[in-house]
């Protein structure tokens, strides 16, 4: 059973990383093209998108930071409540690290994928 859980955690982390690696270039390309076409006088729609671009990065950072903090807190509580379990399972640290990274990557991956879907439907010009 622990190997299945480890595989699921690794697979989930890999899927999030893959989703992020596909969505981020799409979003960046769309937004850079929009910046280039907007020029010195961006429209109201462009200004909203540019403002959203900055605000969502800050929100995603804090959401990711909070998720990683809570995952680390849970891992520390598990470690404190079972002092000898670490010695019995050497892969536990690896699983815990992947879990913390996965929790931190989830909000960023979710937002990037949502942005890619949203921006794919819109025209640049």
What can you see in these coordinates?
- With 125 residues, the protein is mostly helical.
- The protein has one domain.
- The chain is 87% helix and 0% strand.
- Helix 1 (2-38) runs parallel beside helix 4 (92-121) and helix 2 (44-81) packs antiparallel against helix 4.
- The longest helix is centred in the middle third of the chain and has 38 residues, at 44-81.
- The mean pLDDT is 85.
Q: Helix fraction?
A: over 70%
> What radius of gyration results from the CA coordinates?
19 Å
Instruction: Give the count of helical stretches.
Output: 4
Say how many strands there are.
0
How far apart the termini lie comes to 53 Å
Query: Which class best fits the helix and strand makeup?
Result: mainly alpha
Q: Would you list the SSEs in sequence order as H and E?
A: HHHH
- Poorly predicted regions are none
Question: What would the average pLDDT be, to the nearest integer?
Answer: 85
Query: How many discrete structural domains?
Result: 1
Q: What's the overall geometry?
A: elongated
Report the oligomer.
single chain
Largest sheet: none
Beta-strand fraction estimate: under 5%
Summarize the structure.
The protein is mostly helical. It has helices at residues 2-38, 44-81, 85-88, 92-121. The chain has one domain (2-121).
């Amino acid at each position: 059973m622990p190997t299945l859980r480890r595989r699921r955690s690794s697979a989930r982390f890999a899927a999030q990383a893959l989703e992020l690696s596909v969505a981020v270039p799409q979003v960046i390309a769309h937004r850079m093209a929009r910046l280039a076409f907007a020029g010195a006088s961006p429209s109201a729609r462009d200004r909203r998108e540019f403002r959203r671009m900055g605000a969502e990065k800050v929100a995603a950072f804090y959401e990711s930071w909070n998720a990683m903090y809570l995952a680390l807190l849970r891992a520390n509580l598990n470690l404190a409540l079972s002092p000898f379990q670490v010695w019995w399972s050497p892969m536990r640290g690896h699983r815990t690290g992947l879990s913390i990274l996965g929790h931190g990557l989830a909000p960023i991956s979710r937002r990037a994928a949502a942005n890619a879907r949203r921006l794919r439907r819109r025209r640049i010009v």
